[in-house]
Amino acid sequence: MEIDRKELKRRAREAMGLTRPRFWVVALVYFLMTTGLSYLPDQLLSLLSNGETAFTLSLFCSILMSLYLVIVRFSFNLWSLWTSRNMDPGLGSLLQGFSVAGRVVIMEVLIYLRVLGWSLLLGLLVASPLVYLLLMGSSLLAPLLLLVIAGLYAAMWAIMLRYALAPYLLADSPDAGASAAVRRSAELMRGWKWELFKLEFSFIGWALLSLLLSVLVTAAALWHAGFFQALAAFPVSELPDLIANYSIWQTGTPTDLLELTQAQIELFTLYSSASGGFWTALLTDLITLPVFLWVTPYRSVSEAGFYDARLQLQRASAPPL
Question: Are residues 192 and 110 part of one domain?
């Protein structure tokens, strides 16, 4: 049995067209409440000169921001669920998650612990044969490693999809608690993870468009900073080593850094400051904002529709009382 994802997406577009205020207004407010607000701690911390104080405040702000984003994301899921059901939610729905903030945080912690547990178990299962092949010096190690990485990535996707419906279940039955929502999601998704994956994957085109726009902005920032001109000054024979040396520059010890030339260090510093700077990040968010305002509610409302469709199928297959 399948869920018609094309019909789900059609209904999502239809429901989005009926919202007041318009869906893109809600998505814009959601963007300002999340991505927009995330710029403030960075700017405040940049004004501090005391390293110890800056680290403590940075840690506090990171924890607080993480909790805040979890609650706002749940609120957006709530707006998506109500939109999917044509209940005409307003902007106030983006604050509804704060009324059950404790349950939302507990739900996310439970999901994180479960995903972490499965990840560790999978890691232990694949580590032993890889270590054995490494000790034996087998030529199969490289292709097997790539296969294992692909398998682990697929397994992680399946694990995360297992708990994808938990926010909607908590929204429908907050009094049942976070633990019940997580368990119920695992039950509903048993045998249905592939269907939800196909729905999620159908939005890959929009993700690639956003990625392309981000790459173009980064390339423009690097060009404006003179990175490509500096890169052209390097001999062609040294170019293959730059990627490995850049990794050393980022994570290497002071002894490792002695192996880098001054020209390489200057190039890497220029690249990091230009590609990861505040204005580059801000311009990237602004350029990709139109895509965000469309695809974020579109994807979320479609997923909420999947949740309702899954509930209906379960009720239809339930034995009569």
Answer: yes
